[in-house]
Amino acid sequence: MKxxxxxxxxxxxxxxxxxxxxxxxxxxxxLSKGHSYMDQNDFEKARVEFKNVLxxxxxxxxxxxxxxxxxxxxxxxxPAHQHYKQVIxxxxxxxxxxxxxxxxxxxxxxxxLAEENAKKALELAPENTDVLTLxxxxxxxKNDLTRAKEYVGKxxxxxSFNPAASMILATIKLREGQKEESLKIVEDSAKNNPxxxxxxxxxxxxYAAANDSERAIQLIKEVIDLKPGDYSIRKQxxxxxxxxxxxxxxxxxxQESIAKAPEDVQIKLDYIDFLxxxxxxxxxxxxLNAYIAENPAMYAxxxxxxxxxxxxxxxxxxxKIYDDIIKEDGKEAYGLEARxxxxxxxxxxxxxxxxxxxxxxxxKENPNDLEALLMRGNxxxxxxxxxxxxxxxRVVLRENPNLSDVMKKLAAAHVQNxxxxxxxxxxxxxxxxxxxxVDALYRFGQLMAxxxxxxxxxxxxxxxxxxxxxxxxxxxxxFQAQLGAKAYDDALQTADRIKSKYQDxxxxxxxxGVGKQAKGNLDASIKEYKAALAKESNGVEPLSALVKLYVSxxxxxxxxxxxxxxxxxxxxxxxxxxxxxxxxxxxxxxxxARREFEAVLEIDPKYVFPYRNLANVMMAKGDMNAAEGIFKxxxxxxxxxxxxxxxxxxxxxxxxNPDAAIAQYEMLYTKDxxxxxxxxxxxxxxxxxxxxxESIGKAKTLIEPLKSSTNPAYLDTVGWVYYKSGEFERAxxxxxxxxxAAPKQPLLHYHLGMAYYLKGDRHKxxxxxxxAVDNEQKYTGKDEARSVLQSLNNA
Length: 795
Hints:
By secondary structure, the chain is mainly alpha-helical. Helix 6 (about 95-105) packs antiparallel against helix 7 (about 110-125).
């Protein structure tokens, strides 16, 4: 009999064990740990485990989906959305990923995409409770409560007290006015799901709304027992006690929290906030100073004291704390933070140059300090320096890609930089990240209206109104979008809604007037404008609209009558008096108009519009020197009004003084580098009247922000600058776009014709120059167009 070599057996066994614990074993282990952490709501540890799996096997569907859930649970909806999409690419039948993706789309207000994915999920799993609940939720969003009840009912047949389905059914009952039935549904579901925090939280809302505070408090305490380490729930309880003015109870909760976590600075700072509101600022200050005395090296407490001083307008003390920390900590972490805080204070007081000194000090030490980059970006946005703002906000988002507030700022910077498609995409990401961000939805509505997509604008304003019912700005935006879409009846319904909800205000009547005027119902429009003025006798918008309507009907006397009514009640109403002057000017009653404008300026010498109008009176009289003097006086009295600088530049253009016009545009550009109109006009003047290399080079630099524009005037300038610099191919390419956008503008055909002429394309040159001269319009270069055309005809 052969002897067994036990060493060999042991070695083979060890190899087998190692084999079993290899790649697959490690994946199984990480997944198991990740799911366990998910069950414990420890999302950070779960994230690490699922990330480990994806590093081993990048296409592991379980880990990819679970990572999406972690991101969703931590409110990082954008990245969660991407993970779910990747799961579906790997496994097109993954019902949970499809369902969760639909929920994210629904939260972002993308109902069409939500429905598309919900339909896929229903086809794959028609009996799945969560999928049925999703369908019910969608129909609630669409306000089809009958279909919603149908699907939620099916879900509850399969799982009687499913929390999500129960809460949706409760919402339906609430919308139907059945409050008691709604409450009973949630209560029954909570009894059958005693550890479900969401149901308890929902019940707290019901009880709080019904002033049943004891039951609400009991429920919050039950949630605390379920999550004893979650301070945010104790903070909620303290806040609820405060809302009931049970300050001693609130104080006891916060003090107990401090006792349980004495090293937690944030709990102490929350307690200080509570004291400042419920007792006195002095009490809060003395308590916080006591904490600081116990631990003077804890800078976070000192920053908290500075914030307390800032909130209570004791800014000198706040700044002293920052200065002390800067001296003590130098250029270490807290010293840099103190510089950032001081920069915020200075920027908040419009001391941007001083703020930038501290911001640059921080960035010199740490070029990636996100707070300093954000501050520099904010200041750049205020100063209309979009390129700097875009660069800084992008760095911040690269480090923290889920900051929806920074995404909104980045979108605003792209709007300033005339990059509307990028702005739209950026705002979309912000909304996906935070679907209930009313401000982002509102901004998106504004942006879509700006680009002419009124359908999307309407959808976004409606999403705002779902979250913030009867919000005045959203209703106004919705009206304007509906008007833009020529959905006049819908717009008038919105105006009626504003009338109903804001009965004592003029806004709804004014908008109704605008809507009826757009429909061509002018008599009804006049009645609405008058009703608006009855609500608000000094209302600028309805008064202006009514006057313009009368003037357009060639009934200026009625316009003057309305203005005189307002002025009789309030002779100091400078807006009404200025409008009266404009009506008189339109009638060529120059002396009467001048008296009105001069009267306005006696009341308010800083009011911009009367200077413009008074200058127009002088120009109509042929007194150009007087007009120039009025513009200059207005600029001096209004401390450099950008509008008046622009007007003076235009005046110099019209009166044949291009050098003076260029100087004014240069001044305007220095004050407001984001003014595309100033950039455009200065570049065109340089290209038209200057031939030296320096001027043409400057014009080429100026046109950079104009290249992405769709405005034909701006494209014409870009093309003309290329023409003057000898780049005829580039000039023709851009000028063709300008002509396509505005085919009836002779000046554009002149520029395009000249570019073709110098390129050597005589046929296209002749074709465009004929269009340039065959009209009554006057423009600089028309004589050249005729001369070149004649030479082509004689050739």
